[in-house]
What we know:
Chain A has helices spanning 40-48, 104-111, 121-133, 140-146, 157-172, and strands at 4-6, 18-25, 28-35, 66-69, 72-75, 88-90. By secondary structure, chain A is an alpha+beta fold. A 5-stranded mixed beta sheet of chain A has the order 3-2-6-4-5, sandwiched between helices. The longest helix of chain A has 16 residues, at 157-172. The radius of gyration of chain A is 19 Å and the shape is globular. Chain B has 754 residues and is an alpha+beta fold. In chain B, strand 7 and strand 8 (149-153) form a beta hairpin. Chain B starts with 12 loop residues before the first helix and ends with a helix.
Amino acid sequence: MTGTVTLSQAQPRRATASLSVTLMVNGAIHDLFIDVRTSLLDALREHIGLTGAKKGCDHGQCGACTVHIDGRRVVSCLTLAAQAQGYDVGTIEGLQGVDGALHPMQQAFIDHDALQCGYCTPGQIMSAIACVQEGHAKSLDEIREYMSGNLCRCGAYVGIVAAIEDVAARTQG
Amino acid sequence: MSAIGRSLKRLEDRPLLTGDGCFAADNRADGQVHMRIVRSPIAFGRILDIETDEAKALPGVIAVWTAADIADLPPIDFRMTRIAGLEPYRQHVLARDYVRYVGDPVAVVFADNPYIAEDAAELVFCDIEEETPCLDATADPVAFMPERDPALLSEAAVITKSYGDMEAAFAGAAAIIEMELKVGRHTGVPLETRGALAVRDPETGVLTMYGAAKVPHYNRDSIARMLGLEPEQVRLSEGHVGGGFGIRGELYPEDVLVCAAACRLGVPVKWVEDRREHLMAANHSRDQVHRIKAAVDANGFVRGLVDTFYTDQGGYVRTHGGTVSDLAAALLPGPYLIPAYHVEGHIRLTNKTPSGTYRAPGRYETTFVRERLMDAIAARLGLDPMEVRRVNLIPEDRMPFDRGIEALGTHVLYDSGKYHDLLDRTLTRIGYQDLKADLARRRVAGEAVGLGIAFFVEKSGLGPHDLVTMAVQPDDTIEIVTGAASVGQGVETAMAQICSDVLGVPIERIRVIHGQTDRIAIGFGAFASRVTVMTGSAVKIAAEALRDKAIALAAPLLQADVRTLTLEMGCVVSRDSGATIGLAEIVAQSGKDLDAEGLFRADHMNYPYGIHVAQVRVDEAVSGIQVERYLVAYDVGRAINPMLIEGQIVGAAAQGIGGALLEEFIYNEEGQPLATSFADYLMPTCHEMPPVEVLLREDAPSPQNPLGVKGAGEGGITAVGAAIAAAVDDALGRPGLITSLPISPRRLHALLRR
C-alpha cells in the first residue's frame, strides 16, 4: 500500500468577519468586537477574562463549560457568543455573595468532598444548581441521570450526587 | 489531638469552587502568540515534502516550522527505565523522515490568535508516501523506518526476569493451565487537556514555562539541555492541574516547542491542545497481550509460572522508556508465593499513539492476568476461588518478602503485609457465603448476577529521595516548599496535616508551595504514589527539626532549660513556669530565622495491597453490564487523611470501571484512530458509577518510613478489570469466558453468541 497523500484538502479561506456583541454577564455589561465564530466560552475566557468556565472538549460532550443563560444551563462551547446577546449570562464567578459567602452548592461540594483536581467543578456546580432548580433532583437516580452530561475524571461522582441531594433536600425542604 | 488520621477538609477547595483556579489555559501574557500543531493524518509513511507557504501567507501567521527549522533539537530522552537499545526509538519534537502514528507532529504554526493558528494549520500541505502500518504487537517485528535503517526492527527490547526451578515446578504438576489474556488500549484522559505558556524575560533571559505538572524539576533540566540553556535559565511553574493520572506532565514534543518558540520568536507562546488532539497525541497506555502457562498442584498452589507478553508501545518510546513493561514483568506474581517464575516482556513499536504510564501501570494489566489465572485454577480443579488464593498468598510470617527480582532498578522487597487477614476481613465484610447463596438464588430466578473478587499488591513511594524546606513567616504561618507536584490529589492538605501533627499549628496556617523549580533546588514530582511517602516523610523530618530549633531559640527567651520546653499548638511552652511564646514571636525576639530542611531517602519502594469485590448484573438482551456493588479493601499502612484516601480509591475505581467496560482506543486497518472524541471514547459518568465501599485498613504499616505510610493513589484501580471479569463469568455461569478487556457490549455480544 503506497501512494502519495496530501495532508489537507482545505481550501484557502478568506479572513472571517468580526462583529460587535454586547453581553450581560453576572449583571455586568461587556461590549465586544469579536470574530463571528467566537463561542460564548471563548468570549468569556479570552475576551472578558472570566476563566472559571473550562474547555474540556469543545464539543459539548463533557460539561466543563456549563454556564447559565437566563438561569438555564447551556454548554457555552456550543453556543455562539452572538447568540447570548440580550440574555442574562451567569457564570461560576457570579455565585458568591457580595460578602464572599459561598453559594450553598459550593459549600455542599466542600462538605461532601465532591472535587479533586477541580477542573470540572465550575461546570458541575452550574449544572447542579440548574438541576435542582429544574426539579430534577428528587431522587439519586434522577440526579445521576440529569448530571450525566458533566464528566468528572477524578471520579468524585458519589460526592457530587450527595452534594446535590443535600442542597435539593434543603431547598425543597 | 493528632492531625494525622483525621478527615480534615481540603485546603485546596475554595479557589476551585469559585472559578479562581489557575489552570494551564488560564495563563496569559501580553503579546502572546498561539501555537497549533499540524499532525499527521497517516499512520505510517515517509515524508516527501511539507509545504508551508500558503499557511505562512495567511494574515496573522507569524511563523511555520517543520523539522528542518529545528534540526538542532535532539529527540526527547528517557526520564525513567532506560534500557539499552531504546535510543533509536525516541521521538523528535517534529517528525523527521517518517510519520509513525496519526497525530504525529509534522509542523507547527504560530499566529496572533488561536482561530487563525488553527486555520493556518489546515493550509499546511504534507506529501507522505504511505506504508502499510503495523498495528499488532504480537505480529513479527517489521522495520521501524525502512528507508532510514532497514535493520532497525520494531521490537525495541525484551525484558526478562526469572527465579526458581521451573523444570521441577512443571515436572511435578497436577495440572498445567495455559491462557492468553489481553488488556485493551486506554489511558488517563484528564479533563483538562495539555497546555503551556512559555515566556522569556528579555532582561534576565530566564525562560518560564507555566502549565508544568508532575515532574517540573526533571523537565526543567531536560528543556534546558535540549535548548542549550543552563538549568538556572529555565523555570517551570505549576499552577492548578486538571488531573494527571500518570500521563500529564511528562515531557512531550509540544512542551519543547513552546519553549523553543518563546526563545526564538522572542514573544510569549501559548499552546492549548483540543480534545481530539489529546486523544491521539497524549500518552496512551495498557495494551498488553499475555500468554501464560502455570504448573499447579492438586490444591491449586502455583508451583511455577511462565509468561510471555507483548506491550504495544505505539509509534515511539517516550519518556517512560521501558517502565510499563518492567513493572508488569516484576509485579505480575503479586501477592502469591509462586516459587518459580519466568517472564519475557517484548516491547514492540506499532503505528499507534505512543504509550506510557497510566495509574497502576503494569499492575492493572498483570492483576487481570494473574487473577484470571487464579479463577481458572479454581474452575479446573473444582475449588472455591478464595481457597485457591488462600493457598497461594504469601503468609504474614514470610514478611518482609524478597521476590528475588528487580523493578525500576530497585529490589522487589515486600515490606509488610497481612494478606490472609485482609482476605478474611473482606469476606466477612461482604458476608461471602450468604452473598454467594443470595446470588445463586437470583440466578435460579433468571437473573444473570455474579460476584468477582481479586487480590492485588501495589507499589508506592519510589525514591531516591525528597527534600522540603520549612520556615516560619512573620504572619505566624508556616511555609513548606517541596519539589513534589500536585495533580489534584490533595497534596497541600496531606502535607499540612503531617506538619501540623508535629508542630500543633492548625493546617489553615500552613502553606504548601509545590511545583516551582525556582523555590527549591531539587524535586522529584508526583508519580508512582510517591508524594505522601517520600515528601510526607521529608515534611515530618523538617517539622521535627523546626520544632527542636524553636525550642532551642525559645529557651533563652523564656529563661528556661530546653529539657523543660515542649511545643504545643504552635507555641513553645515551659512545663515549669507555664510561660509560652509563639513561633513568629520567637523569630521576632531572637532575630533569627526559624526554618529547617527535611531530606528523606528510600532505597526500596513499599508495597500496599488490597482486594476488589465486584457484584454485577448482565443484561443479556443488550449485552450490558451493570455494577451493582463495589468494594475496595486496602491496607495503606497509615492513613494521613481517610477522606482524601477514600476519594483517591473511589475515583480510581471509577477509572478502572471505564477501562474494564467502556474505554478503548480502537484503530481501523489503516491505523486511523476511531476514538477521537468523548462520543467514541466513553468514560464513566455519574450514571454508570456505582456506590463504592472502602474498607480502609492500617494493619501493616511500612517499616521503611517514619510515618508508616504507603501510597494510596493507585490501589483503587488496580484490580477492577480482574474483579469485574470474574463477576461476569460468575453471572453467566461460564468460567473463563472473559479473557479480554474492555468487556464492551460489542465484545460481550460476540461472546454470548459463541
